[in-house]
Amino acid sequence: MQFNLADIFETVAGSVPDRVALTYEGENFSYSQLDAEANRTANLFAQAGISRGDHVALFLKNSVEHVTSILGLIKIRAVPINVNYRYTPAELEYIFTNSDSVAVVVELPEHQRVLASLFGACPKVKTVIVIGEVDAELVAAAKAHEVSVVSFDDAREQSPVGEFDARSGDDVYLLYTGGTTGYPKGVMWRHDDFFRKPLSGGNPYGEGARQDLAEIASAAKEFPELSFLIAAPLMHGAALYSLFTFLTLGARVVLRREFDAEKVVEAIEKDSVQVILIVGDGMGLPLVDEMERRKDEVDFSTLFSITSGGAIWSTSVRDRMLAVKPDLLLRDNFGASESGNDGAFSIDEAGNLRMPPSPNMILVDERLEEIPAGSDDVGYIARIGNVPLGYYKDEEKTARTFPTRADGTRLSVLGDMGKVEADGTIVFLGRGSQCINTGGEKVFAEEVEAALHAHPAISDALVVPAPDARMGQQVAAVIATYPGSDELTLEAVQEHCRKTLAGYKVPRTIVLVDEVKRTPAGKADYRWATTLAST
Questions:
Q1: How many CB atoms lie within 10 A of CB 374?
Q2: What is the C-alpha to C-alpha distance for residues 380 and 384, in angstroms, rounded to an integer?
Q3: For residues 104 and 113, is the Cβ–Cβ distance under 8 A?
Q4: Are residues 95 and 12 in the same domain?
Q5: How confident is the model at residue 502 (pLDDT cuts 50, 70, 90)?
Q6: 10 Å Cβ neighbour count for 444?
Q7: How far apart are CA 442 and CA 430, in angstroms?
Q8: What confidence score (pLDDT) does residue 519 get?
Q9: pLDDT surpasses 70 at 349
Q10: Which domain holds residue 443?
Q11: Which of 49, 317, 443, 501 has the fewest CB atoms within 10 Å, counting from its CB?
Q12: 4 close to 11: Cβ distance less than 8 angstroms
């Protein structure tokens, strides 16, 4: 059977209609209520002229309307476009035009004004759906550029019943990924592949994908009423994967307007949160700081797992979380917008990230030939099976990232490098694009960052190459420290790193900053760090 994401959600809503599907800022919505709101939203979009295959940009922070917009669009076979709401006007113009968005859903007045300034550069945008009060500047610009403005409030007048066309597993979900360098790229997923890979076939805690909608309905009834807090913004791929995964299971998704460590910790007790999704140390560090501060005030008894995806999650942060609650299950997911959920890392005593053997993950050389288990060769980690169609409107990058082998097998090769041990375990070394070549020796930034994060005074760090006249490149670190810490010296950093790293991997220079720059989703800004370290 070919699965469609909207069919799956409606099946679950019909199976567990009275179960809580979404908790947003303390307000609960059952599956039947959320489905009805999504139907109203879908009908509003259809009335506004949005139809099958149309791309609609969601220029939004987390909200109930953000969730119903995603669901409403896929119900009418339109395509939601995730937008980083902290992008500059130039980056927003790029994503609106590159995605061929015909409509934008927007809320905040400052976002409306930025959008108003871009109408002239985004001629395909013909409709704007505004949540809340419409800004006068947007109204004037829309009139000048013949753009229709629709109030999201009008959804209340729409029918809560959905009468939609039959859908297909070939419908496309377009997920934009910012990564750490360059402009965002739109990853094209077939709905069926999205279900089978990022959503683990609807069975993330078991073996084998669900076979049909009846099995999904039955599994939702049997699944415990798990409460899952997504700390990341919904414009982030890891958050979208989690949203769909847990709505497919019939679980309860807890959302906050934006990431606030204090509010997340309060929600653990208030909303009986059992699982929290974070994005690496960018969220993990402030979260564990708050957990330590409130450990004698907040009841953590319901919390049994913290999961991270999309960024480095250091051992030191995990150890501090376990010190607060020793029975926590910590899961470090390995995946990407271009590959979906690949499974969970484990960490060995040397701090190496390890992936257990999997038929869907191999190591290949530059010719895409598989590197045999037990080889000492370093290669590229490649994913097989349910691979995205490619990057939207970028055949060159598609061919490079999603190559086809001589036997016809398509791969997803993102530049992650590793070694494969005799039993098939893959040891992750780092992203090739973040590899530093110092005098011919290869240094992976992630490995050095993990060592730095283990220093008790370091709150965050990025490792980048800096020019070196003799070695070509040298290892440089941009470091932020905890308030009240003693002044950190290069000598102290080097002494700390030499305990776990070979000498050539130890930073030769450091730049101290008040805060390491990251995206709202916790992604490292390596361009910023490289510029800083090179001046």
A1: 11
A2: 13
A3: no
A4: yes
A5: confident
A6: 22
A7: 11
A8: 59
A9: no
A10: 434-534
A11: 49
A12: no
User: What is the pLDDT at residue 285?
Assistant: 86
Neighbours of 107 (CB within 10 A): 21
**Statement to judge: residues 111 and 231 lie in one domain:** no
| Domain end position, chosen among 424, 456, 479 | 424
Q: Which of the four pLDDT bands, split at 50, 70 and 90, describes residue 181?
A: very low
Question: Is the same domain home to 86 and 201?
Answer: yes
Give the count of beta carbons closer than 10 Å to the beta carbon of residue 153: 14
Q: CA 192, 226, 235 angle in degrees (round to 5)?
A: 50
Assigned domain for 344 exists: no
CA distances from 478 to 317, 434, 462 (A): 18, 14, 5
Average pLDDT over residues 504-529: 83
The confidence score (pLDDT) of residue 294 equals 96
Helix (H, G, I), strand (E, B), or coil: what is residue 424? coil
**Residue 234 in domain:** yes
**What are the φ/ψ torsions at residue 193 (nearest 5 degrees)?**
-70, -35
Among candidates 335, 119, 139, 331, which has minimal Cα distance to 237?
A: 335
On whether both 420 and 438 belong to a single domain, the answer is no
Q: What is the pLDDT of residues 154-179, one digit of tens each?
A: 999 999 998 999 999 999 999 998 65
Q: Using DSSP, state whether 77 is helix, strand or coil.
A: coil
Give the phi and the psi of residue 415 in degrees, each rounded to 5: 100, 0
Asked whether residue 247 is domain-assigned, the answer is yes
Residue 108 sits in the same domain as residue 181: yes
**For residue 253, is pLDDT > 60?**
yes
Angle, CA 295 vertex, CA 283 and CA 22 arms, to 5°: 55
Domain boundary among 395, 424, 453: 424
311 shares its domain with 241: yes
Among all chains, which residue has been given the structure tokens 């809560």? 160
CA–CA gap between residue 373 and residue 500 (Å, rounded): 26
Residues 70 and 62: beta-carbon distance below 8 Å: no
User: Is residue 9 classed exposed, middle or buried when 0-12, 13-18 and 19+ CB atoms within 10 A define those classes?
Assistant: buried
Q: Distance from first CA to last CA of the chain, Å, rounded?
A: 56
Tokens of 252: 């309860």
- The structural domain count of the chain equals 4
Q: Which helix (H) or strand (E) holds 75?
A: helix 64-75
d(C-alpha 92, C-alpha 98), whole Å = 10
Q: For the packed helices 64-75 and 5-15, what is the interaxial angle rounded to 10 degrees?
A: 110
Say if residue 368's pLDDT is above 70: yes
- The arithmetic mean of pLDDT across residues 443-470, rounded, is 87
| Confidence (pLDDT) at 180 | 47
361 and 444, same domain (yes or no)? no
CATH number of the domain encompassing residue 389: 2.30.38.10
